[in-house]
Amino acid sequence: MRIPDLDLDLLRGFVTVAERGGFTAAGQALGLTQSAISLKVKRLEDLLGGPVFLRGAKRVALTPEGETLLAYARRMLALNEEAVRRFVSPPVEGRLRLGVADHFVPRHLAPALARLSRTWPELRIEVEVGRSHELRARLAREELDLVLGKRRDGETEGRVIFTEAVVWVAAPDFTAPPGRPLPLAMLPQGCMFRDRALTALARAGVASEVVYTSPSLMGVAAAAEAGFAASVMGRTGLPEGLVELDHLPPLGTAEMCLFGDAAGQSPVVEPLLEWLRGV
């Protein structure tokens, strides 16, 4: 029996439905009607011999088979894109000095950088991880070419990659000491999340004190995971050992952006942004 080939166009429709949460949203993303997307998924299900989505809910959900297929589909589409870019796109050489706020590490950045290296193997990528405002100061001194980091409140500079919720976090068994200020683990002064959190607590009349300061988000997360203090992070980078706290004042959202003059010049920028949004 000959094993049938999986059509990349059908897989792209399937992945888009899974990522967008519905057939209508997927159609809008791909410039197709809802019925066209439904037909692609139906053809894929016929080919595989079973459903990949559970219908009936407001937001479509994957079947167990669909979950398995999604991982394969993403890999196949990524490999196809890398191959096309490798042979069709102009060669890219030289050096790219990229500053990355540690909010992107490792969940958002590593997969995108790996794809970047495979697509343009002659490009030398140098990555420096740090705090957003420090990296942007280095960008201004022309010590970096691009910076991925947070946009400060009220700022308009930079290209928005995605917007995420800023949330209070702590270990699952964390309890604030009764009768004492809320202990906090934070990045040093100058951190936008720190300033926003302390301001929100003060306005809500919640007493607090910073009991642990670390120059890295990993250090802050470690203190919070140990149950020593609560902290503040972007929801997309929430470590597995932490949970959100919903009884503290809301902190709004933050825009993660790309900064630098090279953002509109380098051919690697658009695929890098696309991959970052997709991880």
CATH class of the largest domain: Alpha Beta
In CATH terms, what is the architecture of the largest domain? 3-Layer(aba) Sandwich
Radius of gyration: 22 Å
| Helical segment count | 9
Count of the domains: 3
CATH H level, superfamily name of the largest domain: Periplasmic binding protein-like II
Query: What is the percent of helical residues?
Result: 40-55%
Mean pLDDT: 86
Compact overview of the structure:
This protein is α/β, with parallel strands linked by helices and 279 residues long. Helices cover 41% and strands 23% of the residues. One of its GO terms (molecular function) is DNA binding.
Molecular structure report:
The chain is an alpha/beta fold and 279 residues long. The chain has three domains: 8-88, Orthogonal Bundle (Arc Repressor Mutant, subunit A), CATH 1.10.10.10; 94-157 and 256-278, Periplasmic binding protein-like II (D-Maltodextrin-Binding Protein, domain 2, 3-Layer(aba) Sandwich), CATH 3.40.190.10; 164-254, Periplasmic binding protein-like II (D-Maltodextrin-Binding Protein, domain 2, 3-Layer(aba) Sandwich). Helix content is 41%, strand content 23%. The protein has nine helices and eleven strands. It has helices at 8-20, 23-30, 34-48, 64-88, 109-119, 132-140, 192-204, 217-225, 269-278, and strands at 53-54, 61-62, 94-101, 123-130, 146-151, 159-170, 182-186, 208-213, 231-234, 243-245, 253-259. Helix 1 packs across helix 2 (23-30), helix 1 (8-20) crosses helix 3 (34-48) and helix 5 (109-119) runs antiparallel to helix 9 (269-278). The mean pLDDT is 86.
